[in-house]
């Protein structure tokens, strides 16, 4: 149903496109803007929603921000896009991203970097005069489009944090649902065992509403959770929460909710800027009735390395299809080359079509899958993935639907319903100004940005970023110290598989 909140949005198709026309030149969030369409009837009638450019949209380009697919126009809609169109949404355009979703700063794009549009604290100067910072990646265009008021919501993908990190840097809400709840059909694969379609919006209730439209079983996605699974998982969540401790809950208070604070999510790399606001947000949850419990997830520090081995291995296999013959922009070898060797087309196509970061991942992933390295890298990373999952299962009150036997013994005394932690180790980093800034060292720095987001991806858990008060509020409350650079700070809520509603509920309490 059309919620009253939506009625405040303008559904004049021209208005939103005008904002895009004004701001996109400097933000670079959109890589394609669809021409105005007649508004269809439906619960999302005329609501402008942007789509990351690795999600297929009929009639618009789907480039994955790669030279490899620069001219590709999809003949069909991804299931998620089809569902939104059916509800009447105005699919307003395609958003910039890191090439094939690989990156954390949205600088690896054939369309150029996305500039973080956050500007709420500038006084006197316009934000355009200020320091240029990254919008985060890989769904940086989607995050910036929402943050700049160019659309009501945007879809992105989250493989290892690509929704939560840019949402945190841009000061908006980003929600990665439990793996398998939202169809991946028509979404260009990066690492199938981790890829999730995810939602960005200005507030939790908007994100939740869009999520409810796309959280539907799709037989075309072999990893999609079936209706039975959804029903059974939801029953076990209800049972777990209501029987154990939520009987007494009233209204919107968090009475009876136990929130875990994982100590490993406050690593040495965490900028001191982040600490104060996160602590205050946790105290606000406590004042709303939640019980705060320190917990430990000891395998956390291994998650990042395991993620990069697994994601790269899957990517190297997925990206093999771009060979210039079946898929991808073909680059024909120069005059004089031996054309009988198709591998030459393959090599020329892939050298020209893939950017530096994608080539690096393909090499890394291919190596991890070779006979010599397989046991030490790929299998070892799979083992770490299981340890990370076990860590989560040992602290959650609600059993893991897919492995109930790994559940903790004493749910009431020691376990928690959700986890809360900082979303990123710092505020948005400055945009690298020259190509040289993206050399090896800077690259490693970018990987570290994902340290707080990859564990939930490996364990396929629902995870939500909520922005903590903006600078103006912090200033009014006298909470600004010299460490505070005024840029957005995000806090994450993570729950057991299938507890998406609970995660969103705690997220709303953080707003
Ligand atoms: N930054 C991570 C990577 O580069 C995550 C990407 C993502 O979630 N798509 O792999």
UniProtKB/TrEMBL annotation:
* GO cellular component assignments: glutamyl-tRNA(Gln) amidotransferase complex; mitochondrion
Query: Any idea which residues are catalytic in this one?
Result: 52, 138, 162
User: Could you give a single Gene Ontology term from the biological process aspect?
Assistant: mitochondrial translation
Chief subcellular location: mitochondrion
| Keyword Iron belongs to the record | no
Q: Where in the cell is it found?
A: Mitochondrion
Any one Pfam family match given in the protein's UniProt record, by short name: Amidase
Q: Which SUPFAM superfamilies match?
A: Amidase signature (AS) enzymes (SSF75304)
Q: Does the keyword rRNA-binding apply?
A: no
- InterPro entries, per database record: Amidase, Amidase_CS, Amidase_dom, AS_sf, GatA
Q: Which UniProt keywords apply?
A: ATP-binding, Ligase, Mitochondrion, Nucleotide-binding, Protein biosynthesis
Q: Which GO terms describe its molecular function?
A: ATP binding; glutaminyl-tRNA synthase (glutamine-hydrolyzing) activity
- What's the Enzyme Commission number for this chain? 6.3.5.7
Q: Which residues form the Amidase domain?
A: 40-504
Q: From the UniProt record, list the reaction(s) this protein catalyses.
A: L-glutamyl-tRNA(Gln) + L-glutamine + ATP + H2O = L-glutaminyl-tRNA(Gln) + L-glutamate + ADP + phosphate + H(+)
Gene3D superfamilies assigned: Amidase signature (AS) domain
- HAMAP family reported for this sequence: GatA
Name the family the entry cites: Belongs to the amidase family. GatA subfamily.
This molecule's function is given as: Allows the formation of correctly charged Gln-tRNA(Gln) through the transamidation of misacylated Glu-tRNA(Gln) in the mitochondria. The reaction takes place in the presence of glutamine and ATP through an activated gamma-phospho-Glu-tRNA(Gln).
User: What quaternary structure, including any partners, is listed in this protein's UniProt entry?
Assistant: Subunit of the heterotrimeric GatCAB amidotransferase (AdT) complex, composed of A, B and C subunits.
Write the protein's name: Glutamyl-tRNA(Gln) amidotransferase subunit A, mitochondrial
Q: Which organism is it from?
A: Laccaria amethystina LaAM-08-1
């Amino acid at each position: 149903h059309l919620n009253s909140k939506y009625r405040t949005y303008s559904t004049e198709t021209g208005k939103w496109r005008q904002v895009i026309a004004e701001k996109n030149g400097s933000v670079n969030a959109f890589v394609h803007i669809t021409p105005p369409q007649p508004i269809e009837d439906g619960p999302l009638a005329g609501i402008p929603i942007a789509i990351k450019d690795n999600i297929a949209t009929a009639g618009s380009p789907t480039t994955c921000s790669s030279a490899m697919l620069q001219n590709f126009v999809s003949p069909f809609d991804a299931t998620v896009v089809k569902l939104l169109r059916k509800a009447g949404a105005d699919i307003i355009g395609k958003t910039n991203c890191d090439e094939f979703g690989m990156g954390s700063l949205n600088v690896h794009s054939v369309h150029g970097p996305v500039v973080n549009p956050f500007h709420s604290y500038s006084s006197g100067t316009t934000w355009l005069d200020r320091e240029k910072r990254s919008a985060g990646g890989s769904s940086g265009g989607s995050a910036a489009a929402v943050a700049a008021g160019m659309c009501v919501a945007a879809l992105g993908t989250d493989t290892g944090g690509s929704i939560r990190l840019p949402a945190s840097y841009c000061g908006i809400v980003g929600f990665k649902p439990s793996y398998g709840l939202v169809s991946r059909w028509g979404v260009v694969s990066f690492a199938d065992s981790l890829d999730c379609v995810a939602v960005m919006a200005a507030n939790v209730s908007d994100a939740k509403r869009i999520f409810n439209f796309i959280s539907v079983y799709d037989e075309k996605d072999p990893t999609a959770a079936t209706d039975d699974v959804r029903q059974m998982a939801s029953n076990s969540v209800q049972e777990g929460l209501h029987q154990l401790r939520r009987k007494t809950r009233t209204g919107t208070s968090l009475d009876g909710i136990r929130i875990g604070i994982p100590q490993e999510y406050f690593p040495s790399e965490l900028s001191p800027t982040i600490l104060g606001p996160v602590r205050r947000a946790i105290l606000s949850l406590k004042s709303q009735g939640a019980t705060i419990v320190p917990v430990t997830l000891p395998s956390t520090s291994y998650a990042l390395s395991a993620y990069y081995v697994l994601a790269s291995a899957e990517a190297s296999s997925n990206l093999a299809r771009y060979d210039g013959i079946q898929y991808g922009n073909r680059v024909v070898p120069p005059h004089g080359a031996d054309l009988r060797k198709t591998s030459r087309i393959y090599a020329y196509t892939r050298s020209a079509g893939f950017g530096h970061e994608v080539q690096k991942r393909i090499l890394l992933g291919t190596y991890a899958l070779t006979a010599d390295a397989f046991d030490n890298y790929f299998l070892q990373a799979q083992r770490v993935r299981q340890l990370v999952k076990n860590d989560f299962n040992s602290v959650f009150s609600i059993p893991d639907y897919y492995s109930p036997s790994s559940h903790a013994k004493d749910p009431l005394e020691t376990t928690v319903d959700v986890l809360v932690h900082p979303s990123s180790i710092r505020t948005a980093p400055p945009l690298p100004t020259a190509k040289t800034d993206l050399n090896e060292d800077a690259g490693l720095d970018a990987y570290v940005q994902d340290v707080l987001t990859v564990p939930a991806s490996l364990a396929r858990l629902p995870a939500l970023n909520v922005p903590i008060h903006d600078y103006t509020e912090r200033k009014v409350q006298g909470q600004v110290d010299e460490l505070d650079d005024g840029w957005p700070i995000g806090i994450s809520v993570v729950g057991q598989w299938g507890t998406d509603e609970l995660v969103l509920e705690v997220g709303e309490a953080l707003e």
